[in-house]
Protein 1
Amino acid sequence: MTVGIFAGIPVRDCKSAVEWYTRLLGKDPAFWPNDVEAVWQLAEDRYVYVVEDAARAGGGVGMIWVDDPVSEVDRIAARGLQPVDKEQHGNVCKWIFHDADGNEMGIGGETAPAP
């Protein structure tokens, strides 16, 4: 079975959210389905998008798993975003970022080879 994902994040203002998520993800949206949605392709068949929906804004929670999370968080910091927290579970870490609406997006992965 092939698995993909198209995960949405509700925001109050699409245009300002696009600026923040572009800094977080390090690239412009892959496409705009309409004026209130922007979509980033993270990998084949794996997408994240923001959608303007003020009534639901702020409740999103997600994590992007990457091969080298330490380097990725450093690149994000160089683009002007800082994590608000960090969780560690053995050799797996997650750095937590919050957008202007309070949606949580984590960047995580293994930080050392598993024993």
Note: Residues 5-110 form a domain with the 2,3-Dihydroxybiphenyl 1,2-Dioxygenase; domain 1 fold (CATH 3.10.180.10).
Protein 2
Amino acid sequence: MPATFEGFGLKLLYPENWTLAPRGDDEGDQGLTLDLPSGGFLSIETLPITRSDDEILAEIDEMLREQYGNVESQEVKLTGASDGERAVDLSFYHLDLVVFSRVVLLDAPDSTRRQMPIAGRLLIQFQAESRDFDENEMVFSALLKQIRDTE
């Protein structure tokens, strides 16, 4: 039986063995993080319209480079992506493991904008060790489809 998240205009089904991580006071209630049992995570954050995709992607790239050193980055086109959707695959080494991080930026659905008028985009990040990333990529795609199909 899948678990359900409802918040900031989204209703998402996700695997019951994934854990909804508590958010700190400094993180607010405008996003969520789901922890995978194997140590990876999926996060969704609402973003104001005031920042460009290029700025956001550059900040994420810089943060990962500061933390992990060498990071490979490649913009990708995902199946089912809308015209304004951007996706970047990043990979790096951590503790002798290859880690993949997929970052997707897409327009916030109308239901999110009704609850949070300033929210123009969603930032979705899925990160896990390469084997776990591959094993859970279909689940990530299904979550992404749920978001894209939200009205």
Note: The first helix runs from residue 53 to 68.
